[in-house]
Amino acid sequence: MDRLTVFSGNANPELAKNISGYLGVELGDSIVSKFSDGEISVKIEHNVRGNDIFVIQPICFPSNDNLMELLILIDALKRASAGRITAVIPYFGYARQDRKDQPRVPITAKLVANLITVSGADRVLTMDLHAGQIQGFFDIPLDHLLAVKIFVEHIKKRIDCSNLVVVSPDVGGIKMARAYAKKLGVPLAIVDKRRISTEKTEAMNILGEVKGKDVCIVDDIIATAGSLVEAIEALKNKGAKDVYAAISHPVLSGPAIDRLQKSSISKLFVADAIPLSQDKLIDKIEVLSVAPLLGEAIKRIHKEVSISVLFG
Ligand code: R5P
Known about the structure:
This protein is of the alpha/beta class. The chain contains 8 helices and 14 strands. The longest helix is centred in the first third of the chain and has 17 residues, at 63-79. The structure holds ribose-5-phosphate. The site of ribose-5-phosphate has 15 residues, from strand 11 and helix 6. Ribose-5-phosphate is lined by residues 96, 169-170, 172-173, 219-228.
């Protein structure tokens, strides 16, 4: 493949800059702005014919604008005769709408996958998908990275793990939690939410021993922080001591920051796939960079060598 070139929309320019820094290339020159009516305008400012192009754009808030920027950037690059285009989507928004869990609802994650493919992407690079099966929504090659290694290395430095238990906040997160527990060499516990009756809401059971233990809750997304705060309460009621959390994607919407501030969490570790505005950078949050992981994957995809060493 010809020259490696990295472009970015407005979703996370800082991450794009750090990835370019890791790769030792300059960020491609483009203008991604808006017309006065809100439509997105894109202009690629230099020749990209034959280039191997990576477009860095998480689908985070404002999700619809960021998704449209990604699609339009890919379209512009395709029409400028790019050699190959990889959509680098460190946070795949709309991923939680991945199945019909009630009648007459869409599968928006599949629609987004279709849009990305139709826009002209040749491949996709993403990280910590809400559900691994979303890979199958694409009929183009997709590489799915896991940030667990980065989180585990950081946790080992920041926490005394001798009394630690890893906790999955729901049954769906067991696979991810098991990977953390294995790498940290600590036991696993699970928060098991049960509906008592149609009128009564949920009972929280804890599967596994947490009494007198420090706990680290692991998850893919923190949005309103509802799931996290519920899990913290249930764990505290069962006698857990210090509570930490490692959550890849800090969506942090609505009441999330307020809930975190009021909660008894000691530290929340998140990745920089989604940028955090100043008002969200509270003391309890520590941000870990996934730029080297994404940069190394891009380097290997460009050189057409295996990237499986980066999985997990
Ligand atoms: C659920 O399946 C996800 O893994 C997250 O636990 C959930 O989406 C987080 O959302 P919230 O913070 O709004 O509870």
